[in-house]
Amino acid sequence: MRTLQFSQSLIFAVEEINNSSSLLPGVSLGYKIYDTCSFAPQGIKMAMALVNGNEKSISDEPCTKPAQVQAIIGETYSSVSTAIANSIGPFSVPIISHYSTCECLSDKRKYPSFLRTVPGNYYQSRALAEMVKHFGWTWVGAIRRDDDYGNSGMAAFTKNAEQLGICLEYSLPYFKTYSKERVLRIIDQIKISTSRVIVGFLDAWDLEDLLQIFFEHNITGYQWVGTEGWMIDPELASLDKKYNILQGAIGLAIPKANVTGLQDFILDVKPLKSVGSAIFPEFWMALFDCEYTLQNDSKGLPMCTGEEKLSEVENTFTDMSLMPIFSNVYKGVYAIAHTLHNLLGCNKTCLTKQQPGPVTVSI
After folding, report:
1. Spatial separation of the C-alpha atoms in residues 3 and 274, rounded to whole Å
2. C-alpha span between 122 and 168 (Å, rounded)
3. What is the CA 317 to chain-centroid distance, rounded?
4. In the chain, which ranges are continuous DSSP H helix?
5. What is the largest CA-CA distance in the chain?
6. Sign of the Cα pseudo-torsion (115, 121, 126, 127, in order)
7. Angle value at C-alpha 231, between 283 and 99, nearest 5 degrees
8. Helices 180-192 and 204-216, interaxial angle, to 10°?
9. CA 127 vs CA 61, 80, 124, 207, 246: distances in Å
10. CATH class of the domain at 121-251
11. CA count, 13 A, side-chain hemisphere, 119
């Protein structure tokens, strides 16, 4: 649902720009959306597909697009962004991320064409340390996502914490592919520790996996301090009502933002029918908790009528808590549009006989 909301934000921005008479007049932006499934190898594969060109178009309109994309919006996860930036860096295709905050991506020598519309973790790590110090918690534990985001962020937090006189009793890595035995070792370490504050440099999906495990092993009553990766996530908050593990957690979040018309666009599910036969039934079943077609592995849910109303359901898709991230996707598309507008020398119209290449766009 989150990924679909991000995609809808991109489409909204593109359609808004294409309907504008002042930005890129006479030029229409197109897009191709791939799902990386949050895995680096899949991200590299999708990025290569974009860089190598896409000759097919679902539009009947004449198309004068260049052989490869002008820019890539994404990825959500820092590790996937790092992999993509490493693999297509030599092609100088700009990559604009809406949510990859790893400070490692700020190294322009390694990632010269990587950009983002979200702040890096340099200041967040420092702010978390200041927050812990403010409440007088000088003896704390930490759990970090075992990837570029968590390891880099925790290293910066540890450095800042030490300067402020905060001692770290433990710093434990976690990733969703860890074995049961390895996760149990994390549980054991927390149990034998004496600190009652846990700094979580994690993602919402990490904690969704860990909540039940913590509950089963009575890892409760701790003060959690969190990053933007999970503090405002609506699914995690809803899930924790069952376990009460994260109650009272404090942390940082991306500043609130609103894009006029975006919420209505995301909630208008009818156009999604034209996206393709594969995605729509799956989306509809998840949205309304019904069966789109009778199947052998039916879960006994009611049949979808096709007349279900979005106003009658309340779930992740209808929750707009992540609007600040949607706004970052929106800003990324507009950054590309304004760059192309300038490169094409647009005034009342744009000079489209000579297409700008990725190198000129990234410059």
Report:
1. 18
2. 19
3. 15
4. 2-18, 40-51, 78-88, 121-134, 148-163, 180-192, 204-216, 234-243, 262-267, 279-288, 323-343, 358-362
5. 69
6. positive
7. 65
8. 70
9. 50, 25, 5, 21, 20
10. alpha beta
11. 15
Q: What is the amino acid identity at position 225?
A: V
**Residue carrying structure tokens 């009553």:** 221
How many whole angstroms separate alpha carbon 208 and alpha carbon 191? 20
Mark 106-125 as b/e (b = at least 16 C-beta within 10 Å). eeeeebebbebbbebbeebb
CA distances from 41 to 37, 81, 103 (A): 10, 11, 21
170 burial (CB, 10 Å; 0-12 / 13-18 / 19+) is middle
Each residue's pLDDT, cut to its tens digit, for the chain (363 residues) gives: 888 899 999 999 999 999 999 999 999 999 989 999 989 999 999 999 888 865 555 555 555 555 578 899 999 999 999 999 999 988 889 999 999 999 999 999 999 999 999 999 999 999 999 999 999 999 999 999 999 999 999 999 999 999 999 999 999 999 999 999 999 999 999 999 999 999 999 999 999 999 999 999 999 999 999 999 999 898 899 999 999 999 999 999 999 999 999 999 998 877 666 555 577 788 888 888 888 776 655 677 888 887 888 878 888 888 899 999 999 999 999 999 999 999 999 988 888 776 676 666 655
The distance of Cα 18 from the centroid of its chain, to the nearest Å, equals 25
Determine the topology of domain 2-119+320-362 in CATH: Rossmann fold (3.40.50)
Q: The tokens of 180 are what? A: 């049961």
Angle at 85 between CA 80 and CA 87, to 5 degrees: 95
In 147-202, which residue ranges form alpha helices assigned H by DSSP? 148-163, 180-192
* The three-state (H, E, C) secondary structure of 259-307, written as one string: CCCHHHHHHCCHHHHHCCCCHHHHHHHHHHCCECCCCCCCCCCCECCCC
Domain coordinates in residue numbering, the chain = 2-119+320-362, 121-251
Whether the model clears a pTM of 0.85, i.e. scores above it, the answer is: yes
| Fold match, 2-119+320-362 / 121-251 | yes
Closest by alpha carbon to 118, among 106, 103, 101?
101
